[in-house]
Amino acid sequence: MSELVWNEGMAVTTKVDWLLNLPRKNSLWYLLFATACCGIELMQTGGPRTDLDRFGMVFRATPRQTDLLLIAGAVTYKMADAVRRLYDQMPEPKYVLAMGSCANSGGLFQRSYSVLKGIDKVVPVDVYLPGCAPRPEALNEALMTIQKRIEKDHWVQRMKIDSEKLAK
Amino acid sequence: MTLQEILNAAQKQFPQMKLEVQKGDAGDEWLLVAAADLSSLMQFFHRDLGMDFLACLSAADLQTHFAVVYQIRSLKDKSEMMVKVLLDHDKPQVATVSTLWANAGWFEREAYDLFGIHFSGHADLRRIMMPDDWVGHPLRRDYQEQPEYHGISTSRPDSHRVLDPLYPKKAETGAAEKAE
Questions:
Q1: ipTM for the assembly
Q2: Residues in A touching B157 (Cβ below 8 Å)
Q3: Would you state the pLDDT for residue B180?
Q4: SS3 for A113?
Q5: Best interface-test mutation with A: which of B110, B141, B150, B154 has the largest number of A CBs within 10 A?
Q6: Radius of gyration of chain A from its Cα atoms, rounded to whole angstroms
Q7: Which of B156, B158, B160, B162 best tests the A interface by mutation, with the highest count of A CBs <10 A?
Q8: Which residues share a beta bridge with A13?
Q9: pTM of the complete model
């Protein structure tokens, strides 16, 4: 909380980046998108023991309301197009977590004719979570890693770059 | 009904057909049927012997031939039989049984998708598992994987090659052994 400085009277000064990132990292809504057995661990993580709700994380059934694409499980080539489309439908800023060996690299099925060899071939991945399947504690840590990643976003700088791009 | 009894009944009905009971190593036995006879024979099993349930339809690539295997059952007298048909490898084609057992429709689509076997008379023979624009039939022995699908590469750097410092050494010795 050192970023907040209470001035005399009513005014508070703080950093814009810090202020923007604070709600973003504490309300990570994720897309309800479990493709395989990792989805079971994902459900378990949402349960009372590790309790995703205390991070402000709730699942959403539409990509248009989500910040985090949490890919839990193997993705086939047939599904890859759908993943890409879901990612495109998510509003910025968006983050991707590849959960489990299959999402990371194809895992157990990487010699298969139908399974995508890692989700990073379709969408950019922020955090890779190894394991088959990762325990809820591991998923919890990966989500906290995403939160740390969000903390480091520089929005003022990014907006400046975007406006310069638009001007060109 | 044992398989021999079924064979006798079928032979009585169709005296000109060449039917044969074969035995596998595991003690299983099946009726081997010519592809041209399959349609009328299956009709006979379904209508006259009360084989009202198709439990499974599968296929195999035997390199010289394709085999299509039918598991059919009679729920009434609890008998079961296996029927096999061998198809030409260059042009695998056989009559559909989806007109007798409706669930054969999806089984046949699967066999078409993964092996490229054509079931003539099928109402809607298209791929069921792979994407519609997929090239090739993946469970064929001579299947060649395409380098990419919709711009997505279908290969990944070999993890042994990347992580194992001894990998090139191992590969070379392996190659040398093969050459000898």
A1: 0.73
A2: none
A3: 45
A4: coil
A5: B154
A6: 18
A7: B156
A8: A5
A9: 0.79
